[in-house]
Amino acid sequence: MKRITAVLLAVLMTAAVLSFASCGKDKPKIEDFPVPEIPEDYDESTTLRTVGDIVKDMTELKNIESSVFVRGVTTGSALLSTLGAGKDEAVKLSGTDESLLVPSADYKNVTLIVDSPANLTLNASFKAVAVYSAGEEGVQFAGSAETFAVFGQDVKVEFSGSANTVYIEGKNCTLTFSGKCDAIVNMNTSTVIINATENDIAVLNASGSEIVVPAGETFSAN
Question: Picking from 37-41, 52-56, 58-62, 199-203, which range would have the lowest pLDDT averaged per residue?
Fold first, then answer.
């Protein structure tokens, strides 16, 4: 009798388990929902930033001397020596009126501040370049940077390199573009931009509106 009772209990328990399993199949599970497909070329880093975001970043760049130690140099040899040592995250060139060349090299962790009457050719890679003043021939930029910013006035730039952002705040500045840039932001009404590329380029102004400069043409913000 005990054996028959045990068998009946086993049958009842099995039926109960099967019943619960059957009910569970009717409930939606998270793995049953379709997974959205992400395009292969999706890159979160390319998400569009607003002009306000860029201005905030540029304010931090302008105030870099209050947040990190900035190594000051006054000669071309000192500049190259300091960059080559790789010990400083920010270097400021001032004083010299030499014509200086910074050859191709990787200084992607360095912010270079230029406040000098020097005519400067930059072929290297930097984290950021901030120009406050330069010689009459200006800055020839054939390197790369996350940010290339012009804060000073009467600055000329020949931009044949590449950057994520080019930011223009200084007065009476002229920039000739033949390189590549993800975003060009102009904050001053006295800026002149020469498009020397074979493609149209877009310039964002302070209001966030976009101005298209056709290939081979010149834009004056006046």
Answer: 37-41
Q: How far apart are CA 19 and CA 12, in angstroms?
A: 10
Q: Are 69 and 92 in contact (CB under 8 A)?
A: no
Q: In terms of Cα–Cα distance, which of 129, 214, 191, 199 is closest to 164?
A: 129
Continuous segment of H or E residues that includes residue 117: none
Task: List all residues 6 or more positions away from 87 whose beta carbon is below 8 Å from its beta carbon.
Answer: none
**Pair 128, 112: CB distance under 8 Å:** yes
Reported as type and span, the H/E element at residue 79 is helix 76-85
Q: Which residues of 48-64 are buried (b: 16+ CB within 10 A; e: fewer)?
A: ebebeebeebbeebeeb
Q: How far apart are CA 173 and CA 208, in angstroms?
A: 20
User: What does the block give as tokens for 79?
Assistant: 């500049």
Residue-wise pLDDT tens digits, 113-136: 999 999 999 999 999 999 999 999
CA distances (Å), origin 133, targets 40, 114, 116: 43, 6, 6
Residue type, 82: T
* Residue pair 127/145 in contact by the 8 Å Cβ criterion: yes
Cα dihedral 69, 99, 104, 174 sign: positive
Q: Which two tokens stand for residue 65?
A: 């001397």
* Angstrom distance (rounded) from CA 211 to CA 99: 34
Residue positions counted in the chain: 222
